[in-house]
């Protein structure tokens, strides 16, 4: 009862930022992302009758505490679905998601865990069922079931049965690139879970954020189909700025931005003024991701590397969905 799966992380172009239900992880809006090939997690799940509890090894080290609890709680869901509630697992994950690059490893982590766990215990899930299961580990992870562009449909039901991601366009549809800009200093972090909760509960800007989503989604989906890079980039950048604006209105107010974050944002806008189409997006942290086209790769990379406070630039193409090894 053993299986190995690989999942890649994803970058949201239309952000998930808030839950309407916390236990099931049901969001307040649809979100849309691009799965990236450069950053991934490979996980082996081995259910064994001889075990009396789950074991979770991450990069060859035993994990305990909160991270371990999140994994066993998620395995409980898999056990529940299969009816095999008395089986424990050895979970062995290797993360190729450098924390320094500012990607949450929870997206690739939970997607790989869900896929390997479900297969190992003998569940035969469709992509939709797998995405719905994965969502309950970490919201953004439900989009990593698919390669290329995926949309997480928020759903309306209270049991979460209609909240899962669907594929929008494959990675072969369009070769757009993402540079992850690594900054030398990081600020004290409000976790994305705590940050979105505080924002939903206290920010007067939150209703405006929610109202603006349908238009952004329609526009970006049209832009992806038409391969209109300026349209997709401009909507993604504006959507990111709106998400971050909600945090400034929260009580107490906070921001994920650092001085170098702003310097990178300005440099990207300057590149555009100089004729290089490049756009930024930022998640719940200070690092910046830059969208660009393959023909501009050398110039974009050089420009980003020369910004004071930038220590590394990691380039990525669109990635694939779940693969079983
Ligand atoms: C996203 N983020 O759409 C957004 C943009 C951060 C900013 O999804 O509580 O780790 O596990 O559902 O998925 C980060 O939140 O949160 C996130 P949980 P998750 O990618």
Secondary structure blueprint with pairings:
Layout: E1 2-14, E2 19-21, E3 26-27, E4 31-48, E5 55-58, E6 61-62, H1 65-82, E7 88-96, H2 106-120, H3 127-135, E8 149-153, E9 164-169, E10 177-183, H4 192-202, H5 206-226, H6 229-248, H7 259-273, E11 278-281, E12 288-292, H8 297-305, E13 310-316, E14 323-324
Parallel strand pairs: 5-7
Antiparallel strand pairs: 1-4, 1-14, 2-3, 4-7, 4-8, 5-6, 8-9, 10-12, 10-13, 11-12
Helix pairs in contact: 1-2, 2-3, 5-6
This protein binds ligand 2P0.
Describe the structure.
The protein is α+β, with helices and mostly antiparallel strands. It folds into two domains: 2-173, Ribosomal Protein S5, domain 2 (2-Layer Sandwich), CATH 3.30.230.10; 177-316, GHMP kinase, C-terminal domain (Alpha-Beta Plaits, 2-Layer Sandwich). It has eight helices and 14 strands. The chain has helices at residues 65-82, 106-120, 127-135, 192-202, 206-226, 229-248, 259-273, 297-305; strands at residues 2-14, 19-21, 26-27, 31-48, 55-58, 61-62, 88-96, 149-153, 164-169, 177-183, 278-281, 288-292, 310-316, 323-324. The strands form three sheets. Strands 1, 4, 5, 6, 7, 8, 9 and 14 form an eight-stranded mixed sheet that branches. It has a four-stranded antiparallel sheet with strand order 11-12-10-13. Strands 2-3 form a two-stranded antiparallel ribbon. A hairpin with a 2-residue loop joins β5 and β6. α2 (106-120) packs across α3 (127-135) and α5 (206-226) runs antiparallel to α6 (229-248). 46% of the residues are buried. The model has no long low-confidence stretch (mean pLDDT 96). It binds ligand 2P0. Ligand 2P0 binds next to α4.
């Amino acid at each position: 009862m053993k299986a190995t799966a690989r999942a890649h992380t994803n970058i949201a172009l239309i952000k998930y930022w808030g839950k309407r239900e916390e236990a099931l992880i049901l969001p307040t809006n649809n979100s849309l992302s691009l799965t990236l090939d450069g950053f991934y997690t490979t996980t082996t799940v081995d259910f064994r009758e001889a075990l009396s509890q789950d074991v979770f090894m991450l990069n060859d080290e035993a994990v305990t505490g909160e991270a371990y609890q999140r994994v066993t709680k998620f395995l409980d869901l898999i056990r529940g679905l299969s009816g095999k509630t008395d089986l424990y697992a050895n979970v062995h994950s290797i993360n190729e998601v450098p924390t320094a690059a500012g990607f949450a490893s929870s997206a690739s982590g939970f997607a790989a865990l869900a896929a390997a766990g479900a297969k190992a215990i003998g569940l035969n899930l469709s992509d939709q069922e797998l995405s719905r299961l994965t969502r309950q580990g970490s919201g953004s992870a439900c989009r990593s079931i698919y390669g290329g562009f995926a949309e997480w449909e928020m759903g309306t039901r209270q049991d979460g049965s209609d909240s899962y991601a669907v594929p929008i366009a494959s990675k072969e549809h369009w070769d757009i690139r993402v540079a992850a800009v690594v900054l030398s200093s990081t600020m004290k972090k409000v976790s994305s879970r705590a940050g979105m909760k505080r924002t939903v509960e206290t920010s007067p800007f939150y209703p405006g954020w929610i109202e603006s989503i349908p238009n952004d989604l329609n526009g970006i989906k049209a832009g992806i189909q038409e391969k209109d890079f300026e349209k997709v980039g401009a909507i993604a950048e504006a959507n990111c700025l709106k998400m971050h604006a909600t945090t400034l209105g929260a009580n107490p107010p906070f921001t994920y931005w650092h001085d170098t974050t702003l310097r990178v944002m300005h440099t990207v806008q300057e590149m555009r003024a100089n004729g290089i189409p490049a756009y930024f997006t930022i998640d719940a942290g200070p690092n910046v991701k830059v969208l660009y086209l393959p023909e501009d790769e050398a110039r974009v990379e050089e420009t980003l590397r020369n910004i004071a406070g930038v220590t590394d630039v990691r380039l990525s193409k669109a990635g694939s969905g779940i693969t079983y090894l």
